[in-house]
Amino acid sequence: LPMSLVTAPPTTLLRLPVKTTTALNFDTKIKQHGMASKWSTSLCSQATRAREDMAEQFQFAARRPNGVPLQRLRDSVNTYLGLLAGFMHHPDDVHGSQESNLKGLVYFYWSPSLCPPVNFADNNSFYEAASVLVNLALCCLNQASAHIATPS
């Protein structure tokens, strides 16, 4: 590659392959299905706030691709994924082999950003976690690219 391409910082905005499109209220779903308990209500309210915070951090990172600090994004992703685990595994199961009774109750809404915008929903918490991790990885790669391209 010509040296000018290697040392020039990226100027385009980061395009994440999928983006969250709908704010979720986890509480509503558990109440509709009669699953509300002290534990599930606490988990759902925390997950609602954590997903909103994480979505804001992804939007911020996508708007500022040239070296936005990613520690806040990583922290919000870690918080959200920790809470999301409660929708995958039962909280009393230390081995992680028993599924949560909340699994499949919440639909996660995403939209592809590289194709025509067609919203899609999936109630698979593992798909949600994978989508979050792919977006985090792309933000980290973009930041690494910006640091490598910036002359010292």
From TrEMBL:
Signal peptide: none annotated. Transmembrane segments: none annotated. It comes from the Eukaryota. PANTHER family: BRO1 DOMAIN-CONTAINING PROTEIN BROX. This is BRO1 domain-containing protein. It comes from Eutreptiella gymnastica. The lineage of its organism: Eukaryota, Discoba, Euglenozoa, Euglenida, Spirocuta.
